[in-house]
Design a protein that fits this description.
Length: about 110
Amino acid sequence: MAETAGIVFIVMGLFFDLFGCLGLVRLPDIYNRLQAATKCVTFGTCSIMFGVFLMKGFNATGFKALLIILFLVLTSPVAAHALARAAHISGVKLWRGSVIDRYEEDKGKKE
C-alpha cells in the first residue's frame, strides 16, 4: 500500500516539475517565471520526496527525504521573493500585459 502511494506521489511530483519547467520556458517575464519555478519546486520536488519517504519508511533515507521537504518549503518561497524584489529594485520591467504592480504601489505609500 505504501509503495503504491509513494509511486502516486512521485508521478504527481514529476507532472508538477514538468509543468513548472514548461512555465519557465513559456512565461513572459521574470516575475511570472519565478511563480512557476516556486510552484515547481514546492509542489513537485516536495511531492517526489514525500513519495520517497512513503516508499522507504522511517529509515535514514526516509528522514533525509523529510529534511529535504522541510528545507525546500522554508527556502524556496523566500528565495523567490528575494529574487523578485531584487529584480524590481534593479529596474526589470513587468510584462506589458501585467495589470498591477503592488510593490510599486506600496513603495509609493511609504514615501
